[in-house]
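Q: Entry one of two.
A:
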Amino acid sequence: MLNYIIRRIFYALPILIGVNLLTFALFFIVNTPDDMARMQLGIKYVTPEAIEKWKAERGYDKPLLFNAEAEKLDKLTSTIFFEKSIAMFAFDFGRADDGRNIAHEIKSRMMPSLAIALPVFVLGLIVYITLALVMVFFRATYIDFLGVIVCVGLMSISTLFYIIVGQFLISKMWHWVPISGFATGSDAVKFLILPVLIGIVGNIGTSTRWYRTIFLEEMNKDYVRTARAKGLPERLVLFRHVLRNAMIPILTGAVVVVPMLFLGSLLIESFFGIPGLGSYTIDAINSQDFAIVRAMVFLGSVLYIMGLILTDISYTLFDPRVRLS
């Protein structure tokens, strides 16, 4: 097991380097350091001296990938890419273009993001799996048929629609919860109810149909027929045997959500004015703050790889046939 984890960590290094390189290339195709300086300085007519000073203060005064004027190894190390990338592997994200410490911002904004994403993930998983199991239990009946129709209808509705309708009805007209904002401590609950509810409802259609498909595939396997032949009731077969054997594809799908637990929901945080990592990323993209964007992409890649490793390890808990070595 330990050898497997170490091996996967070493496999992750070239992936993270590739993600860094790709993000770097895409960002600088759109903006050069000079363009970034002009945007951040916010002056219509910026002097070349001011641009050079801004670049020097933030480490953008060197070549991007290759320094032809340097000697030996410095040709690669004395570049913007190397100096901005190598520190990330020690989780030193440096400072944003406006001077704020990125690591401090991530730490302070992580909890608001978790406060939304964790309930959405846990409660959503319970709701989606329960609905899917009910539909499978009543498969080929009107309950299953209507359930599929409702899921398809919900899939065709954008999350933005739920946000707008939820804010208008629940907040503006009925005044049950605040329309936006955030607070600390127990006061945060009233600000989180609507975003969490919308986060769950917005994924009911897609997730319930997906889990229903997984359970239906399991229902046609030999072990289910054997359990029925032994006289086990359908409810016991479904909830004890089918659910347990369907955990591997469920866990695989849950990996995709792991980065979002920490990085937050871009749409929900932006519309509800929640100071999480999602809104932080959106603000960085709008202001074209390269340092923040790269830090968030790197962090998302690390979390995704960690999720994959944890998922592979959890396979052994639900399927004894899986062995990691």
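Q: Entry two of two.
A:
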Amino acid sequence: MRAAINAVFGSDQKLQHCCTHKPRNVLDFLPKDDKPQAKSLLRAAWKLDADKGIARIKKLAA
């Protein structure tokens, strides 16, 4: 997909990750016991405006 976007729109365009696969990719790095809470926190953060959501996700990562 990235190659097609680069060819048509240029390489400076942002690529939106799939709302199903992005959380799955993030949660794959966590221990099984931490996944449910992290999943809930990610979903809540993604419902906020960008600045607040980013801050929430950075707090979760810390």
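A: Comment on entry two: Residues 18-61 form one domain. The longest helix spans residues 35-46.
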